[in-house]
TrEMBL record:
<dbReference type="GO" id="GO:0042910">
    <property type="term" value="F:xenobiotic transmembrane transporter activity"/>
</dbReference>
<feature type="transmembrane region" description="Helical">
    <location>
        <begin position="77"/>
        <end position="95"/>
    </location>
</feature>
<feature type="transmembrane region" description="Helical">
    <location>
        <begin position="306"/>
        <end position="332"/>
    </location>
</feature>
<feature type="transmembrane region" description="Helical">
    <location>
        <begin position="101"/>
        <end position="122"/>
    </location>
</feature>
<feature type="transmembrane region" description="Helical">
    <location>
        <begin position="134"/>
        <end position="158"/>
    </location>
</feature>
<dbReference type="GO" id="GO:1990961">
    <property type="term" value="P:xenobiotic detoxification by transmembrane export across the plasma membrane"/>
</dbReference>
<dbReference type="GO" id="GO:0005886">
    <property type="term" value="C:plasma membrane"/>
</dbReference>
<keyword id="KW-1003">Cell membrane</keyword>
<comment type="similarity">
    <text>Belongs to the major facilitator superfamily. Bcr/CmlA family.</text>
</comment>
<feature type="transmembrane region" description="Helical">
    <location>
        <begin position="164"/>
        <end position="184"/>
    </location>
</feature>
<keyword id="KW-0812">Transmembrane</keyword>
<dbReference type="InterPro" id="IPR020846">
    <property type="entry name" value="MFS_dom"/>
</dbReference>
<feature type="transmembrane region" description="Helical">
    <location>
        <begin position="214"/>
        <end position="232"/>
    </location>
</feature>
<feature type="domain" description="Major facilitator superfamily (MFS) profile">
    <location>
        <begin position="10"/>
        <end position="396"/>
    </location>
</feature>
<feature type="transmembrane region" description="Helical">
    <location>
        <begin position="252"/>
        <end position="272"/>
    </location>
</feature>
<dbReference type="InterPro" id="IPR011701">
    <property type="entry name" value="MFS"/>
</dbReference>
<keyword id="KW-1133">Transmembrane helix</keyword>
Length: 414
């Protein structure tokens, strides 16, 4: 019983570390209009603070892997978490949107250590037979965070000042630091032989990027996975300012739409018993593109009320839980070594592309839902195009077309 209790506590701490960044992305979304009003700026400028946060996560992940290996798990972890706490307090007291953008970047550089350290500690602290089970538990904890964070953020934004959102994030992280101090084992010992020379790190990443399958599917997964970032960046403005929802209602709406991605992730486990990773990716991208075009048409013609838009967005977002995990599996499949560098590069690409898309939502902001929905559909279209180009280069597209032609000829012969 004691061993089970310790296991649960350890998973809870690792899950908390993993959710620092998702919480930081999602919790302040309902407060976008209030922050824009208070800082006397536009929603599009506040959206750039989300872009800067995602950029910070992308960059930070590339550096923490080598640091955690060279200096052990705890020292870089504590350093990153304290940077996050200080930056969170800084976010609470900014007076201009430019300062908020900068502080959010610093906050991300600190907070992203939680994701990297949690994955490393799973490998350190659990036997091989329990690693998959533990990662599944962490995935579930992370999946729940988009449901909880905006709901909490909606209530805080509605009943308190938006500054308290960042104070709350600082307090949560401080509690995590205390928990790590008293209940988290040290993990792997420091390895002083690991080189932090940029040239050596750079060579590993270049070697990973030279693999065609990795590059193809990391682009497919990263670009398709950026569609929800367009939704995240634009949805608070769309649903609060255009459709008139309150911050609290928006928080519950965000939680509801998160079920689409969580449910699809669970469905993916069942589908993999019957279909290949590649088949699921192709199918998910295909139906997402059709749904994306319907959303654009409906928003453009003003045919959708808020409930219809919510329903069709739910259907669209299920594709994220199907295409992205399978694209990730296909991208990492070629690596028996350098898997750590490949994982770090995958995280970097996802967040970098996501950050770019959120910036585009800000750039094209025009007071309508069109920039958000067009960029969502565009992500799927580009991801599908990358996959088609890959199939063309490798000859798979020609073989597929020839096979289809033979099937049609056989059908007519009958």
């Amino acid at each position: 019983m004691k061993e089970q209790k310790n296991y649960f506590l350890l998973v809870l701490i690792l899950g908390a570390l993993s959710t620092i960044s998702p919480f930081s992305v999602d919790m302040y979304l309902p407060a976008f209009p209030a922050i824009a009003t208070d800082l006397r700026t536009s929603i599009s400028n506040i959206q750039l603070s989300l872009t800067s946060y995602l950029t910070g996560i992308a960059i930070g992940q590339l550096f923490y892997g080598p640091l955690l290996d060279k200096f052990g798990r705890k020292k870089p972890l504590y350093a990153g978490l304290w940077i996050y706490v200080v930056a969170s307090i800084g976010c609470a007291f900014v007076s201009t949107y430019e300062t908020l953008i900068i502080m959010r970047f610093v906050q991300a550089i600190g907070g992203c250590v939680g994701m990297v350290a949690a994955q490393a500690l799973v490998r350190d602290l659990f036997p091989v037979t329990k690693i998959a089970q533990t990662l599944a538990m962490l995935t579930l904890v992370i999946a729940v965070s988009p449901m909880v964070a905006p709901t909490i953020g909606g209530y805080v934004a509605a009943h308190f000042h938006w500054h308290w959102l960042f104070i709350l994030l600082a307090l949560i992280c401080s509690g995590i630091i205390v928990s790590c101090k008293w209940h988290l084992p040290d993990g792997a010992a420091p390895d002083r032989q690991i080189s932090l020379r940029p040239v050596q790190v750079y060579k590993k990443y270049i070697e990973v990027l030279k693999n065609r399958q990795f590059l193809t599917y990391i682009l497919v997964g990263g670009i398709a996975g950026a569609a929800p970032f367009a939704y995240i960046a634009g949805s608070s403005d769309v649903f609060i300012n255009i459709y008139g929802l309150t911050a609290t209602q928006y928080g519950w709406l965000f939680a509801f739409l998160s079920i689409a991605m969580i449910g699809a992730t669970q469905l993916n486990h069942i589908l993999l018993n019957h279909f290949s990773n590649r088949t699921i990716v192709i199918t998910a991208l295909g139906y997402q593109l059709v749904i994306g075009l319907i959303i654009i048409l409906g928003v453009w013609t003003e045919a959708f009320n808020v409930w219809v838009l919510i329903g069709i967005l739910f259907i669209f977002l299920t594709g994220h839980g199907l295409s992205v995990p399978n694209a990730a599996a296909l991208s990492l499949a070629p690596f028996s070594k350098n898997a750590g560098s490949a994982s770090a590069m995958m995280g970097f690409m996802r967040m970098a592309i996501g950050g770019l898309v959120t910036a585009l939502v800000s750039v094209f902001h025009n007071g309508t839902a069109m920039p958000m929905v067009i960029l969502m559909a565009a992500c799927i279209l580009i991801a599908g195009s990358v996959l088609l180009i890959h199939f063309y280069i490798t000859g798979e597209l020609r073989r597929w077309i020839e096979g289809l032609g033979l099937q049609l000829s056989a059908g007519r012969g009958k």
